Amino acid sequence: MTNEENTLTPSSVLSPKDFDSGFDVRWCPGCGDYAILANLKRVLPTLGIPKEKFVVVSGIGCSSRFPYYLDTYGMHTIHGRAPTIATGLKCSRPDLSVWVVTGDGDGLSIGGNHLMHAIRRNVDIKILLFNNQIYGLTKGQYSPTTKQSKRTKSSPTGSIDYPVNPISWALGAEATFIARTIFQYPDHMQQVLRRAAEHRGVSFVEIYQNCVIFNDGAFRYATDKEMRYDNIFELEHGNPMKFGRDQEKGIFLHGLTPKVINYKQAGFDETDLLHHDENAQESTLAFFLSRMRYPEFPEPIGIFRAIQKPTYNDLLDNQMEEAKQAVTKPLQEIINGEENWTVT
């Protein structure tokens, strides 16, 4: 299915205010969650879906307050189990648009197993993982994505853990839609969220989000107006991978290794650069991109992968229908079985 065929019809009725729950939004002043909430409120009315068909499911953490702040159906579940609840909900009510809101701690630590299986099954849910590389709600312990040597309350001499790479992790679980965006890029975030909503199957979106209290400036290299030109680049399907203030740098594939070059100085042109293909069934290119991390490489944002394959929900429905067709006996006879005995 092409993106054009899968595009939802915008609603002419709903507005962001329709998704405002009226509750006081309580995050720390300057928290990146405010921006994500505002952008999600802008996107939901454009999807052509009735408001009563949206459900937001969360676990535990700062990000998990989202069900309170959006005027939709929602569930605030237990730590790490939001994907499990969302899977059951989507299977029983396939007509609903189900969104999972989680954080790097909630989703990748205690919830890692649940998140992995929801992804590998290709359940038709939208997963937003807020990555601030720290545990915020529980006051600053290191999380699965915290960088090595980071000093926190639980690692006063520096974390020795190797951090999880969420995009690589999602690729390993065979996610059919994978993207990354940044809390300070509203237009880009809205584009990514719309694409995630339009995708049929699991959508995994990593959102870089600043924790102003416990990990302030973790993504300054990607948000600072002077630094970001050299440290990030936007993935565009079919286009060369270029970056820099004047788009003078690019990504060149040397054998099986991506290299950064100033292609104009080196005498290359855009055709020599690596071009993005988000629809590639083979995930090799997307994996290359997921391993490009600051400061060794500029980091890609945008759609890493967008492919189609049967969803868990469709396969489940087909299996149930086949089972119904195969039934030739009354239910009570099936329950009783072919062999019965009486215990005296």
- CATH architecture name of the largest domain: 3-Layer(aba) Sandwich
N-C termini distance: 62 Å
Low-pLDDT parts are 1-7
Count of distinct structural domains:
2
CATH fold title of the largest domain:
Rossmann fold
Proportion of strand residues: 15-25%
SSE string: HEHEHEHHEHEHEHHEEEEHEHH
Question: How many runs of DSSP E, i.e. beta strands?
Answer: 11
Instruction: Summarize the amount of helix as a percent range.
Output: 25-40%
Structural class: alpha/beta
Name the CATH superfamily classification of the largest domain: Thiamin diphosphate (ThDP)-binding fold, Pyr/PP domains
- What coarse outline follows from CA principal-axis ratios? globular
Strand order of the largest sheet: 2-1-3-4-6-5-11-7
Description:
It is a single chain. The protein has 344 residues and is α/β, with parallel strands linked by helices. It has two domains: 16-239 and 276-315, Rossmann fold (3-Layer(aba) Sandwich), CATH 3.40.50; 240-274, no CATH class. Helices cover 28% and strands 17% of the residues. The protein contains twelve helices and eleven strands. It has helices spanning 33-43, 66-69, 82-92, 104-110, 112-120, 166-172, 186-198, 220-223, 228-231, 284-290, 312-326, 331-336, and strands at 54-58, 73-76, 97-103, 126-131, 177-182, 203-208, 232-234, 242-243, 249-254, 257-261, 299-306. The strands form two sheets. It has an eight-stranded mixed beta sheet with strand order 2-1-3-4-6-5-11-7, sandwiched between helices. It has a three-stranded antiparallel beta sheet with strand order 8-9-10. A hairpin with a 5-residue loop joins β8 and β9. α1 (33-43) crosses α7 (186-198) and α4 crosses α5. It starts with 32 loop residues before the first helix and ends in an 8-residue tail after the last helix.
